[in-house]
Amino acid sequence: MKRKTFVLTLLAGVALAGCTNDDAISVITGPQTGPATEEMPILFQSNARTITRASHEESARLLGNQFYVFGTKTVGATASTLFDNYLVEYAAGTAGTTDSNTSDWEYVGKTSKKGATQSIKYWDFGAQKYDFVAAAGIASGEFIKNTTDGLRINVPDVESMTNVYVADRITATPTAQAATATTPATEAYKSTITFQFRRLNARMRIGFYEVVPGYAVKDLVFYYIGAPSGSYEVGAGTAFPKSGVYTVDYDDATNAAVSTFAGASNQFAFSNSFGRLDYTSALSEAGVAGMPYITANGAPTDSEVKAFLGTTAPTATFGHGVYTIDGTPGVESDFKPILPNENNKLRMQLRLDYTLVALDGSGEEIHVRDAYVSVPVDYLQWKPNYSYTYIFKISDSTNGYTGEGGGGDITTGPGRDPDPDNGGGDNDPVIDPETGEVIPPYIPDPSWPTIPDPDDPDGPGIPDPDAPLIPNPAYPDGPEGDQHDPSNPVPDPTIPDPENPGEVIPDPENPASLYPITFDAVVVEAQDGSSVYTTIDGTDNSSYTEH
């Protein structure tokens, strides 16, 4: 799985820190030995590409110890099907026990996905080429169609996709051929066909670190997960597909599997939770011998108390949750499986409260509310088999408020209700005021051809459920905040300028930032400024002395 990392900030600016690829190194078995006249069975094995290198046994485990093959043989201008959704199964320690098994993977004697008994196949040196494609984890009613546009996969939810893998197409010719600008490299006949699989789902994690001088940061409370009073669960709001359809075909020039995903119309979650923050400790600045840490309340302690954010991007604190991964429920991970959304048109938003704790042992706390960040859509177009990391930096230039803020009343509980008129939470659907119905951000492309209506075959047809989605022109364009929900805009840190009608100035009683306490000093010297008043006769009258 490839990995992209984005570093963002809770300020207005957004910066792309970089992206790296973490492809696994796959071990490919070389050609089998033996004379060309010997009958050589066609053999299969696999390696799964994951976020870390997968061994032979680990690859088999990730694939559920089985995958399906569709393979064709081309003689002259005619291609015939040899492997029609053949089942290939893994059994450790069985390599070499049959002619069709050199790598613990066997297909002979199994039952294909279409119910046929599978038999051994041998290389035909009179054929021009063979083509093979493969997939693992697909549902019982889904089949690989051919070696050109291999399959369509219906996706009911993201959990069902965490163990679905597809492999690049492999072409075999009598002798191995190098790739050209327009043709892929080929394997030689007699080779064990080694598929390299990739996941179809994407993964995402969210992390934070802080660089506020003199303070540690704790108790991040998020709005974007539908909790009426806020939550300590890491929450973000954007368009997360809930279901849809994968289409897999193959690039003729490279044989690479090309996977595209279309989310079902209006089947999106507009907020998502990414686990609880896995906090770390904070170092004390109190200078107390043997007291290197601070507690959650800011007191020096000799025990490490994990209640605070990390202080650098490499030590960022991530949300940590329990998910279904590789088909296994209950797996702890920073990365949460998500469905791809390569055509996403909605930015991602976070709003949160947090608390600053002084490092000097004084126990001072400052509560910041309504910190807000908006991530552009350019960084939210998730692709299959990629892992995405979003890191947010909290600095003393936060756009949050230390007063009451602009989004609601202060509460003593965990967070507050940022949108009490719409059931709480902070990602309410946008409602059409005239019809009372939800306005979806995406709609099926109206120019897409219709399909026959099964209830009215002679009628005008119905929208194709597989039509691509486009942004809905009726979806409101602002104001910012809450995916354009006008009932809950981003707080405004300004007030009308009393001296210039129509203009605004920063709110002096509730500024959206942290302002340091500063000092200055001047020395005022006392001066002998006494005055003595005298009477006309020249005698002093001390009662009139002034200083």
Q: Largest beta sheet, briefly?
A: 9 strands, mixed
Structural class: mainly beta
Mean pLDDT: 79
Helical run tally: 1
Q: What is the overall shape? A: elongated
| N- and C-termini, Cα separation | 84 Å
Our Rg estimate from Cα atoms comes to 33 Å
Helix content: under 10%
% residues in beta strands: 25-35%
Number of strands: 32
As residue ranges, the low-confidence spans are 10-38, 48-53, 406-415
Q: What tags apply to this protein structure?
A:
mainly beta, about 0% helix, about 550 residues, nine-stranded mixed β-sheet, 1 helix
Describe this structure as you would to a colleague.
With 547 residues, the protein is an all-beta fold. The protein is 1% helix and 34% strand. It contains one helix and 32 strands. The chain has one helix spanning 56-62; strands spanning 2-9, 14-20, 43-49, 66-75, 78-90, 105-106, 129-136, 151-155, 165-167, 170-173, 187-188, 192-199, 202-210, 215-222, 233-236, 240-241, 244-250, 257-263, 268-269, 272-277, 293-294, 300-301, 317-325, 328-333, 336-338, 348-358, 365-375, 386-394, 442-444, 469-471, 494-496, 504-506. The strands form eight sheets. Strands 1, 2, 13, 15, 20, 23, 24, 25 and 28 form a nine-stranded mixed sheet that branches. A hairpin with a 6-residue loop joins strand 17 and strand 18. The longest helix has 7 residues, at 56-62. The chain is elongated, with a radius of gyration of 33 Å. It starts with a strand and ends in a 41-residue tail after the last strand. The relative contact order is 0.13. The model is unreliable at 10-38, 48-53 and 406-415 (pLDDT under 50).
